Amino acid sequence: MAEYLPSSDGLMRSTLRETIKRIRRIRSRAGREDEKEEESTGDPLRDLSLAFIRCVTRTKEAIKSRNEGLKQHGQDRIAIEESYAIRKDIRTMETLVEEIKKFVDATETALAQENKKTKPNRRKVTLLEKQLNERRAQYNECLSTLELVRDLDQRRSSVDEKGLDIGEEMQFGRKAQLRQQLLMLRRTQTGEGGHVDPNEGIELHDNTVGGGRLEEHEDTKETMKVIAAKDAKIDEGLDRLKAGVGRLHNLAIEIGAQIDMQNRMLDKTEQHMSTQVERLRNVNRRIGKFMREKKPLNTFMNVCCCVLIISLVGFFLVQFNVV
């Protein structure tokens, strides 16, 4: 009998495997709420805010990489391409800010229309005012963050301010590469197939100026402090934007619940009105049928007969002293 019973270890492994699958599904769905997730959340304003946050993060990293390259290699082709990409991202952020401004204007218009009514709904007015304040705060945060990114883009290292010649830098690099290739060809080969180092036994001295971290260099120390301060302000702005996105999401849920409740009330009212309209139609149908069946002369004769019967009944009651 024990041979037909399932193994407890196998049951535990299958249960654990199913639990892990559920956790992975939950994590994959929960990741959609992250600003790194590019799928639509169903809320257009939230999608715009998350896209703005992603664009700011990408631009900040690109500016940092561009400035490092300028310090090490000067204004080369890669730095120019990175600058073009940064300006493109800044234009994208400007477009996103304009789209967010449209939502702010739409909410302000809806609030003004609701206040113009003779009997405005106080609950709806309160929700619209709260939504307008949150969206306006989100828009102002986006504007301030955009200005910080623009200012950070204008902060260049001292190498960029010297205005180096691009052609001269590229020609110098090609000469250095050719010189290295010629040295490799002139070296004598060893028995193991390698080359003898021509500088063996010679003490070399590095007379170059610079290197290391930009924060430690005398020419770029102050500039890097300003850039670090701007970077910290951008991070704070991003944190405020993320918090604003969460508040707007909660407010949207609250407004959605209020709209659902109003829709249910409207549905009940519509059903009641439909029932009353159907009853009125039935009454009108019966009255019309009665009027078609009963002509005016027949109606007059029926009324006269009823009056005659009532008169006779009254006469006999009087004669028999009943009344």
TrEMBL record:
Give membrane topology per the record. Single-pass membrane protein
In terms of superkingdom, the source organism counts as: Eukaryota
- Record-level GO cellular component terms: cytoplasm; endomembrane system; membrane
Please indicate if the UniProt record lists Membrane as a keyword: yes
- Return the Basic and acidic residues bias intervals: 194-206
Residues of the region (Disordered) are 191-220
Q: What is its main location?
A: membrane
Q: Locate the T-SNARE coiled-coil homology domain: which residues?
A: 228-290
- Which keywords fit this entry according to its UniProt record? Membrane, Transmembrane, Transmembrane helix, Transport
The places in or outside the cell where this protein is found are:
Membrane
TM ranges are: 299-320
Question: Which Gene3D superfamilies has this protein been placed in?
Answer: 1.20.5.110
Q: What CDD domains does this protein's entry cite?
A: SNARE_Qc
Q: Does the keyword Transport apply?
A: yes
Q: What is this protein called?
A: t-SNARE coiled-coil homology domain-containing protein
